[in-house]
TrEMBL record:
Modified residues (N6-(pyridoxal phosphate)lysine): K190
Family: Belongs to the DegT/DnrJ/EryC1 family.
InterPro entries: DegT/StrS_aminotransferase, PyrdxlP-dep_Trfase, PyrdxlP-dep_Trfase_major, PyrdxlP-dep_Trfase_small
Organism of this sequence: Dyadobacter flavalbus
Catalytic-site annotation from UniProt: K190 (proton acceptor)
Name this protein carries in UniProt: Aminotransferase class I/II-fold pyridoxal phosphate-dependent enzyme
CDD domains associated with the record: AHBA_syn
GO terms, molecular function: pyridoxal phosphate binding; transaminase activity
Pfam families (UniProt xref): DegT_DnrJ_EryC1
One biological process term in Gene Ontology: polysaccharide biosynthetic process
Lineage of producing organism: Bacteria, Pseudomonadati, Bacteroidota, Cytophagia, Cytophagales
SUPFAM superfamilies in the record: PLP-dependent transferases
Alphabetical keyword list: Aminotransferase, Pyridoxal phosphate, Transferase
Amino acid sequence: MKPRIYLSSPHMGGKEMEYIQEAFDSNWIAPAGSNVNGFEQDLCEFTGSRYALALSSGTAAIHLALIVLGVQKDDIVLCQSLTFAASANPVVYLGAVPVFIDSEPVTWNMCPDALETAIKHYLQIGKKPKAVILVHLYGMPALLKEIILICARYDIAMIEDAAEALGATYFNQKLGTFGSLAILSFNGNKIITTSGGGALLCQRQDYFTKARFLASQAKDDAPHYEHSEVGYNYGLSNVLAGIGRGQMKVLPDRIQKRRSNFDFYKINLAQLPGITFQEEPKGFFSNRWLTVILFDPKVSPVRPENAREFLLQKNIETRPLWKPMHLQPLFRQAPYFGRKTAENLFMTGLCLPSGSGLPEEDLLCITNHIRSVFSKT
Ligand SMILES: *Cc1c(COP(=O)(O)O)cnc(C)c1O
């Protein structure tokens, strides 16, 4: 059998080992050193963010962002429902209350109307929400203008979860620079990887200083170890930051290739009955981290699950969309605002192999198999 085609594999650029060697040569095998500084600088230059803090994961970055914004036990945090659980878990770490918000059908991200309804509801009962967690799912920018306007109107801080969206832009501005704070992930499946890692981006120096302090065990200024706050061990290893520096060199190529995967799938599959692709509205530039196809159940003879099982037999990995948080057993008690947009996307979508290392031959093989599922039914 042919080797497995994965959904989104790591794709090294070639320079990573040189930076790792640098860490070994200088013996900075620690969560500090020139690779960490260099990687943070690269992230600032690439995104246009004033500050970047390299961390051990994107989840850690969300945790710190919430703490920096003062989120505490029993506070309300409004979070996009259609996302990976890591967007919402840090809310629970703090004993705060996640409230989930539906998506809108264009970008599949947070619906501004549902957001505003939720905010009004909590204001009415005297519990002003503490923060909004907005996700740019699969690399597609959310309706930023509308969301930012609502957050400003009610004076609520917004955190951008740009874990999947590094390199995507909204009217030529990089995602990760719109929120009070933003997070990135360099997990193995993301558009670039450090094998595991993340970053916190922000424009305010006080946020950055606070987050950096908390990420390295909240050590007060003293010759001995003095602590007046709870700290965390969330720094990124200097060895792994070396991988990040190498990956930053090829990030523009990675974005281009992910986008060309999307175009390939679209050219080869859009004629199939009931199959649709997510379009970019004017001014929106997705990094197309994963290509997703939707199967219109009224038109398509094939269900996403049939296609997934068929492709799995051919050793090709595909996956349903993120299951909305308000439908997860973990969050069954959590309040939810909206209708069924997120749920319908989950029911009708399928993520296709989208790695930047995929050769055209594999893409052709995948599209041929998908077409054959349609011709058989
Ligand atoms: C990957 C991901 C995260 C978490 O990042 P880690 O680095 O794996 O902790 C958070 N949010 C979204 C939307 C993600 O896809």
